[in-house]
Every structure is written in C-alpha cells, then in structure tokens.
Design brief:
single chain, 99 residues, mainly alpha
C-alpha cells in the first residue's frame, strides 16, 4: 500500500484531535484528543520508518506509547480527583485551583 495514504490518515487524525482539543471544554474529551494526536504522530513515524527501511520511527513510536501510557495513568488520576472534588470535568472551572 502507498505510504502516502498512511500519512494522509495521520494528518486527518491529528486534525480531528486538534479540533477536539481546541473546541471541547470537557477535560476527558481534551485528554482523548491529545491521545489521538499522539497516535497520529506514531502512525506518521511508522509510515516514514517503513519508507526509509529503518527501525528508527518504530522505536520512537514505541517510546511515545510508553510515555502516553504513563500520561494516561497520571492524567486520569488527576481528572478523577478533580471531578470528585468539584463535580465537574470542565476545563473552564479548573482556574479555581489557583486559590
């Protein structure tokens, strides 16, 4: 299959993630949008790695997945804690944490 199709798919996924992050005010939706952007970057790195015949992009994508897994653990714990205390997952309400 043509690697351009994978790159186009990665760009589409990244744009959907960026749009979801910029438009939605829910912390969980923003969190999932960031994960979608990371997966789009992984897809692009693996596609470019396949084109050039090396494993560099695949190794980088593996490390991005490891960091994303750690981010999910910490990020979801923070979001759940904020939801339990504030009864809201809106990012507009989180400026109250400064006090």
């Amino acid at each position: 299959m043509n690697p351009n199709a994978y790159v186009v798919l990665a760009v589409i996924l990244f744009c959907i993630g960026l749009l979801g992050f910029m438009v939605r005010r829910n912390a969980l939706i923003a969190f999932m949008s960031v994960e979608l952007m990371l997966n789009a970057a992984n897809l692009a790195m693996v596609a470019f790695s396949n084109v050039h015949g090396g494993l560099d992009g695949q190794v980088a994508a593996f490390f991005v997945m490891v960091v994303a897994a750690a981010e999910v653990v910490v990020g979801l714990a923070i979001i759940i804690t904020i939801f339990r205390t504030r009864q809201s997952a809106s990012v507009d309400d989180e400026n109250l944490l400064k006090h």
